[in-house]
Amino acid sequence: MKTLSATVVARSFSRILDSLEHGNEEIVVVRNNHPVARLLPGAARMNAIEALGDLYRTLDAKDGEAWLADVGTLDKVVKGGLRDPWA
Hints:
- This protein is an alpha+beta fold and 87 residues long.
- It folds into 2 domains: 2-39, YefM-like fold (3-Layer(aba) Sandwich); 48-79, no CATH class.
- The protein is 53% helix and 17% strand.
- The protein is built from 4 helices and 3 strands, in the order E-H-H-E-E-H-H.
- It has a 3-stranded mixed β-sheet with strand order 1-2-3.
- The N and C termini lie far apart (55 Å).
């Protein structure tokens, strides 16, 4: 855990946000020698494949098969070309 003064945080906010994004370190902001805030890294991000993979694992067998069938149908539609709804 890193401790920084409010002045330092204000002067280098962009750099601090970058360090929070790329590191896993908590930052405590102090003013007049008293802690006033804690800055924490954001939650880890997930790409679409990971999210859908998690969704598939939560379904029971029947719902999982129905989901796979729907995805297969959508795949055929997309390969056939998408229609522009504003054309």
